[in-house]
Amino acid sequence: MRAKAPTMAREKELWGHGHQIVVGIDEVGRGSWAGPLVVGAFVAPQDRRLNKIRDSKMLNESEREAMFDRVADWSHHWALGIVTHDECDELGMSAALRLAARRAIDGLGVVPDRVLLDGSWDFVGGGITETIVKGDTTCVSIAAASILAKVSRDRMMRAEAENFPAFEFQANKGYPCPRHKMAIAAHGPTTIHRRSWSFMDDLPWTGIDRLSPVGTLGA
């Protein structure tokens, strides 16, 4: 049975209460071993609708790519907050998420009245955030943010795949999988791996030590 499409019910309710700038937020890359953390921020227009928006995880890669320009063109405002693998190591995941969210919101060029955030943890702050568990499947603004963030990060990882062909980043996007684990065991971590993550503890390859972890969330 096909899941219900996300709706704009919460956005409409907030607009009705005078909150004009409602921002949907979603993150991509928290559980990855390599590459950046990306947070998408999306503001839907109040006078136009766009069909076929779904949580990015419910779409295959070609479907997400096909939706990207449609979602971007439909938006009132949208932006990405990107935190590098080095910054993830330096800050820890909790602080990295906060930094990525701040960069995304700052990039919008407008001041949010309310933020709708996927999940149960408010890494945006400011007293204007509403967390929504599984919000990427129920809320259009969050689903749109997830598409923009996921497609953008996937493109970055496909570009990195050319530099590290053994790791097949074009397929796994830096997330753990058997082929990724085999490549790390054989070659060691690349220059875009997060070297404070716990996977470093299990490597038989000892050319590079694990960095001291700053935080534990996502490690």
How would you characterize the overall build of this protein?
The structure is a single chain. With 219 residues, this protein is α/β, with parallel strands linked by helices. It has a domain at 9-157: Ribonuclease H-like superfamily/Ribonuclease H (Nucleotidyltransferase, domain 5, 2-Layer Sandwich). The protein has helices at 9-16, 61-74, 85-91, 93-108, 135-138, 140-161, 169-172, 178-187; strands at 22-28, 37-43, 77-83, 114-118, 129-132. It has a 5-stranded mixed sheet. Helix 3 (85-91) packs across helix 4. The protein is globular, with a radius of gyration of 18 Å. The two termini are 35 Å apart. 42% of the residues are buried.
Q: Helix coverage percent of residues?
A: 25-40%
Q: Strand share of the residues? A: 5-15%
Number of distinct helices = 8
Overall, the morphology is globular
Structural class: alpha/beta
Strand order of the largest sheet: 3-2-1-4-5
Low-pLDDT regions: 215-219
Let me know the largest β-sheet.
Answer: 5 strands, mixed
Counting DSSP E segments of at least 2 residues, the number of strands comes to: 5
- CATH homologous superfamily of the domain at 9-157? Ribonuclease H-like superfamily/Ribonuclease H
- Assign the CATH topology of the domain at 9-157: Nucleotidyltransferase, domain 5
The CATH class of the domain at 9-157 is identified as Alpha Beta
